[in-house]
Write a structure and sequence with these properties.
Elements lengths: L1 H8 L1 H15 L14 H15 L1 H4 L9 H24 L10 H36 L6 H7 L1 H17 L3 H15 L2 E2 L4 E2 L4 E2 L6 E2 L4 E2 L4 E2 L4 E3 L20 E2 L4 E2 L4 E3 L3 E2 L4 E2 L4 E2 L8 E3 L2 E3 L12 E2 L8
Parallel strand pairs: 1-4, 2-5, 3-6, 4-7, 5-8, 6-9, 7-10, 8-11, 9-12, 10-13, 12-14
Antiparallel strand pairs: 14-15, 15-16
Family: Belongs to the transferase hexapeptide repeat family.
Organism: Trinickia dinghuensis
Protein name: serine O-acetyltransferase
Length: 320
């Protein structure tokens, strides 16, 4: 039966053409022929377990008590770090500097990276608690911490990001990107793991938010849905290849609020305490304490935004 179906569909020819595409015409395999890839399914489970380790009563076992919680956290963390170490080892193979690293050295490096990551979990949790508190303070609809932890997409996204950012800093950018893309698919919030984000960060609603690789965000910053912190241009070398790692995304200082649909592009600075209105398009820096709406900026002291100072447009020129 299977042979007749193969002949009927012409499978032999299709398989041969796919092989030619895969091996000769349109290769997508890694130049060194790496076949052992990090597992998305494994990483999903690892992140879920790390969430349970940091917030066991919300994401862990339902029957935890004061007496059993530490045992649960320890057991879960031990098994999770073992799984993570294997994924780190696989991901390291894709770093150019480890192309020829012998397997025993790579395994040892993966262990050290995973161990270092584990030691960062308490400080990551502290950052996340500040983010949760910022959501509670910043959203009048928030009833309690449990609602925020279990229901807010912005909190889920920043939880993934803070884990991914730690791995990115430890030299495992591929694995970090896996983690943030999982959050992206779940929430519609796209944060590159390289972005630096300070304490008490809150994304309200969240869908469509984009934060680029070299963005730097200060403390107590609040974003609404569809905000973009993106690049204005992409420098290229002499043969037209894009230059990687160039600082090309905005710097957002402390206590800034950016409302829905705003787009801020390039290596510009949004000064401390500034308020960026909805649907604003910015490619220039904004002074501290300024209030920006479509087509204009009013500079003023914090707490007195828009009530004094010269009326200037988004390019810093006097309005006529």
């Amino acid at each position: 039966m299977s042979n007749s179906f193969s002949q009927h569909w012409g499978l032999d020819q299709i398989v041969a053409e796919l092989r030619a595409s895969r091996e000769e015409l349109h290769r997508t395999r890694h130049p060194r022929g790496i076949r052992e890839l990090p597992s998305r399914e494994a990483i999903v489970g690892i992140v879920e377990s790390l969430r349970a380790v940091m917030f066991p009563t919300h994401y862990g076992a339902a029957d935890l008590t004061d007496e059993s919680v530490d045992y649960y956290v320890g057991q879960t963390l031990e098994s999770t770090l073992r799984l993570l170490c294997e994924q780190v080892r696989r991901a390291l193979r894709f770093a150019p500097e480890h192309g020829d690293t012998p397997a025993p050295e790579l395994e040892a490096l993966a262990f050290e990276i995973t161990r270092s990551f584990g030691t960062q979990l308490p400080s990551i949790r502290a950052m996340l608690v500040s983010d949760i508190q910022a959501a509670h303070v910043g959203d009048p609809a928030a009833q309690h911490i449990t609602e925020i932890l279990l229901c807010y997409p912005g909190v889920l996204a920043i939880m993934h990001h803070r884990l991914a950012h730690a791995l990115h800093g430890l030299g495992v950018p591929l694995l970090a990107r896996f983690i943030n893309e999982i959050a992206h698919s779940l929430t519609g919030i796209d944060i590159h793991p390289g972005a630096q984000i300070g304490r008490s960060f809150f994304i309200d609603h969240g869908t469509g938010v984009v934060i680029g690789e070299t963005a730097i965000i200060g403390e107590r910053v609040r974003l609404y849905q569809a905000v973009t912190l993106g690049a204005k241009s992409f420098p290229a070398d002499a043969d037209g290849t894009l230059v990687k790692g160039h600082a090309r995304h905005p710097i957002v200082e402390d206590d800034v609020v950016i409302y829905a649909g705003a787009t801020i592009l390039g290596r510009v600075t949004i000064g401390r305490g500034a308020v960026i209105g909805g649907n604003v398009w910015l490619t220039h820096s904004v002074a501290a304490g300024a209030s920006v709406s479509q087509g204009n900026v009013r500079e003023g002291a914090r707490g007195d935004r828009g009530e004094r100072g010269d009326d200037i447009d988004a390019r810093g020129r006097p309005r006529r």
